[in-house]
Structure formats: C-alpha cells, structure tokens
Amino acid sequence: MALYSEKVMDHFRNPRNVGVIEDANGIGEVGNAKCGDIMKMYLKIEDDIIKDVKFETFGCGSAIASSSMATELIKGKPLEEAKKLTNQAVAEALDGLPDYKMHCSVLAQEAIEAAIEDYNKRK
Ligand code: FES
Q1: CATH number, domain at 41?
Q2: pLDDT tens-digit profile of 22-40?
Q3: Based on the structure, what is the number of domains in the chain?
C-alpha cells in the first residue's frame, strides 16, 4: 500500500491557497521544534466569516498537504466553525496520514488557532 493517499499527494503537488494576504486581520505562525517545520496562516475575517485564507509552509510534504486541506476546510466558513477544526478532521479529509506524520496536521490546527487568537487580540 502506498504510504500517502492520493489526496495527500494531490495537495502536496498542487497546494491550494498558498501565499500571503496583505490585509489579513489574523496571522498565526507556529513551528514544531522537533522537525523544525514552520507554518504561517493568514486570515481575512469579515462579519465573523473566513472570507479568505492563505498559508506559507516551510516544511514536509504532509505539512504542506495539511495546510492546504485545512485552508480548504475553513474557507468561507463561520469563525465559530473554523475554531473547531481539529487535526483529525484535516487528516481524515486527506484520507489519512501515517501515524508518525499526524503531528504535521497538528501544525495546521495550531496555525489556524494562532491566527484566530491574533484576530481576537486585534479587535
Ligand atoms: Fe514536521 Fe511534517 S515532519 S510538520
């Protein structure tokens, strides 16, 4: 069996929502000290809706696929829903990640949490 699902490979090769939002009103950057990977999320929130989301990930393929999928899962969604996104939901949407790569999906969850926290601080 292939180590990575087709979906993981697809989001790794063609990541969605890569880049920077210049007028983002919530930015979160997190890292994993063990592997050294870094993820930055930009949110544009209007009327408690995630109008736009972009990311920059300096990290492994699973981290790139996880950030790409996470942005797809919260784009256009109410803030309250985005807050509840779990790393398991990201991994499931990718049709699974190997156990030792689950921490990559945690990074995506944490980056979104950090960006929402930043948004709340700025309000
Ligand atoms: Fe560190 Fe994937 S190996 S985020």
Answers
A1: 3.90.1010.10
A2: 999 999 999 999 999 999 9
A3: 1
**Structure token pair of residue 55:** 């990311």
Q: Which atom from ligand 1 is nearest to the alpha carbon of 35?
A: 1
Ligand 1 within 6 A of 63 CB? yes
Residue 90 pLDDT greater than 90, yes or no: yes
Q: Of these residues, 50, 104, 111, 115, which one is catalytic? A: 104
State the DSSP code for 101. G
What element of type H or E holds 72? helix 61-74
Is the Cβ atom of 91 under 6 angstroms away from ligand 1? no
Which helix (H) or strand (E) segment is 27 a member of? strand 26-31
Q: Identity (one letter) of the amino acid at 19? A: G
Q: In this structure, is residue 1 part of a structural domain?
A: no
Whether residue 60 lies in the annotated active site? no
Ligand 1 neighbour 82 (Cβ under 6 A): no
pLDDT interval class at 109 (50, 70, 90): very high
With a threshold of 0.70, does the pTM exceed it?
A: yes
